[in-house]
Amino acid sequence: MFDTYDVIVVGGGHAGNEAAIAASNMGASVMLVTMNMQTIGQMSCNPAMGGVAKGQIVREIDAMHGMSGIVTDHTMIQFRMLNKSKGPAMWSPRAQSDRMAFAAEWRYRLEQRPNISMWQDMVTGIIVKDGRACGVRTGMGHEIPGRAVVLTNGTFLNGIIHIGEKQFGGGRAGERAATGITEQLRELGFDSGRMKTGTPPRVDGRTLDYGVMELQEGDARPGKFSFTDTPVIHDQIPCHIVYTNPEVHDLLREGFDQSPMFSGRIQGAGPRYCPSIEDKIERFSGRDRHQLFVEPEGRNTVEIYVNGFSSSLPEDVQYKALKRIPGFQNVRMFRPGYAIEYDYFPPTQLKHTLETKLIDHLFFAGQINGTTGYEEAAGQGLIAGINAVRKIKEESPFILSRSEAYIGVLIDDLINKGTEEPYRMFTSRAEFRILLRQDNADLRLTPLAAGLGMSGVEERMERVRKKEMDIRDIRHFISQLSVSPSEVNPMLDTLGSSPIPHKTKLHGVLLRPKVNLHLARSYVPALDAFLSKYDAVTMEAAEIAIKYQGYIDREQEMAEKLSRLERVLIPEGIDFDRVHGLSSEAVEKLSNIRPRSIGQAGRISGVSPSDVSVLLVHLGR
User: Fold this and answer.
1) What does the alpha-carbon distance between residue 446 and residue 410 come to, in Å, rounded to a whole number?
2) What is the pLDDT of residue 12?
3) Do 95 and 161 fall within a single domain?
């Protein structure tokens, strides 16, 4: 009934979809097995993509010929560039999405790939022969053969949903949990743990009074995620902001004795940076209000997502507390919030390719690795899909370094440090933020995608080459253009900046705070005429390169120094117990993680600089 597929992807969420697309781009035959084909690409939690550091990941996925950015651009209802008041390393795109359109677009994109097949069924086990994954078993009794398997099970592995004192099996509201895989992997020698995440109630937007809420519009000049020719949104839908109050908190506290989190019924660790409303009230008891975002679920629905009000308290407690929020006095609730507890596998059991160390040709991506967030999952799926194909072709691993991509930071953190709570990406986790900006993801990564031989990437490379050339031309023009006091002093005066006494190069003026190309065009006719043939994205990239070149050069130099340690490889079979001088903790951590280089060894928690020096001496370096 089933052919032998190059790659079998288990799960049709964000990680699974990107894994399937990546493998498809590499020319592989793919079987995507999902428990419910109606929920492919489902946004289980908030209806949004991007955000701080997450937006950078979406841009990186797009630059690597992934699909998350394209799907988002076609289905967004609002776009905002966050952190514009800060430096460009912090700028992060975020889009509010139409939940139903997003999932439909994802399924459409997958179905357009002739080398991607789909099967609706629960995978209950992996077929393993001679220490190698070579297919999957399903709940309907089928065996599907494959040369590599990518597990992207999300929150479904032995998932339990909690609402107050009620609990029942499920991987998502209305969907059953997945069983069998955890038990088999444990028998094969894998360690597993439990994690928890949650979601807020959904309410009827027709029952809300938006007049008492703070309006949150999209950007006046909205951007987009993909570097391809996707549409720019014009008809944006606003979100709103409201705040809880002491009365809301008191009503929620009345249900704390029924909270599965406080009673100990939930054993898994929850996300530190996206806590439930009851957790926020408990941890920040001195605060009398918490911010909530009132987010539309789409263009053709009245359903509203109450971002910031995640809860596993009883339904009646949630409802009573909601009614005390300004604008919510007449609220009708569609669905209560709930917590979900699920199995994950500590990611220190993986290689940088996301292949498991115990079983060859078996890859993990997404929440199975202890991460949280659509974007983090999708980034892992991309890398797992690429490396699954390269593995079966017996080609060298594809690994992104920490100085090449946020995706590289994400995976390196997971492999070296593991995680005991849902891992979320932040800009602060990256040492080379100025190199890993959202605007230059295509320049950084599309050449790598082309080097992998991905189908259809040449058109992207043409765009990259043109962008590089245009940036170079703009920088050269600005470095040569002289401007007079009569041209730029009126602009400098409006900015409270000191005037120039004589003609000077525009480059020097542009280095001043608050001076930018968009403003300078209004005062310098020659600049305006020259820039008229370039798009806003290219001009912004050129301006960033001019203003921050010193910082970029310094960070690049640091990255190159660290990369030298990445090139000092550690022999695979080394016995760390026999390396004289290593601390006992270093021996334990190094033996467990088995780093491939000195650079990686130095990033493992518990391995000190002196341990690294001992290793270097042992290796004759």
Assistant:
1) 19
2) 97
3) yes
